[in-house]
Design goal:
101 residues, 0% strand, mainly alpha, 5 helices, disordered N terminus
Length: 101
Amino acid sequence: MNLLALRNESTPINGSDAAVELDGTSGSPLRSAVSRAVARYLTDMDDHANGDLFALLMAEVEAPMLAEVMRHCEGKQVRAAEVLGINRATLRKKLRQYGLA
């Protein structure tokens, strides 16, 4: 599924922005999947979380997202940067950061 299809799938029928509940039950399928994964992680870690959940989550989501967008754009960084809505230099930096360059 491409990003446009995912975005269209999460668009509310009435065309308005849906409110996001704290439990992650409304919104896109991606949002719900992330919410369930974070809840499971926190439950599994109990009181032993190491305090860098934000960095961990960003790395776990950002790296495969970049890889998939690059695959979808057939390795064309200019196009991938447009799809992602980021500057090409930022894309190059992130690709190097995750060993995808």
